[in-house]
């Protein structure tokens, strides 16, 4: 088997997307930020039957949709093009839209706070015993987290808002959350828009 050329890959992708546009009249546009390939595989398995997930570069998706429109004279799918912004995938379905959305939402995966990530939610460190030894106290002091030593381990006295939604995660915050075993973020496919028979609406 020789290597498949880029041109061949493009042709295969165009054919696949055009076939899906022929076969389906409902499409969910889903944001796929921080979604790993294993997670995507699990979502595909959970949806199997009535639905197909297609990922790809936005430029390739747009080109295939335009090509399909020119070939078939069906201009309705051109309404999908403005929705292809950022890291998105398409979910083609013949199932109930609400059920498909709910199924997709089940596959969220907890993720650690990595340095430089923009926090999608507020992160609050709960009070309680951390199980860390007193030599780690300086970690908490740097982040102004009130602690006491209890039975030879560090205990957090009050809940502390460590990271605000929209802020970037710093190295101290990331290190502390890792030490505490806290995975504060969860990622999955997030349905942004729904296309049905030429109409586009928010879910």
UniProtKB/TrEMBL annotation:
GO terms for molecular function: large ribosomal subunit rRNA binding; structural constituent of ribosome. It holds the Pfam family Ribosomal_L10. Residues 113-182 form the Large ribosomal subunit protein uL10-like insertion domain. It comes from the Eukaryota. GO terms for cellular component: cytosolic large ribosomal subunit. InterPro entries: Ribosomal_protein_uL10, Ribosomal_uL10, Ribosomal_uL10-like_insert, Ribosomal_uL10-like_insert_sf, Ribosomal_uL10-like_sf. CDD domains: Ribosomal_P0_L10e (cd05795). Keywords: Ribonucleoprotein, Ribosomal protein. GO terms for biological process: cytoplasmic translation; ribosomal large subunit assembly. P0 forms a pentameric complex by interaction with dimers of P1 and P2. Belongs to the universal ribosomal protein uL10 family. Ribosomal protein P0 is the functional equivalent of E.coli protein L10. This is Putative 60S acidic ribosomal protein P0. The lineage of its organism: Eukaryota, Viridiplantae, Streptophyta, Embryophyta, Tracheophyta.
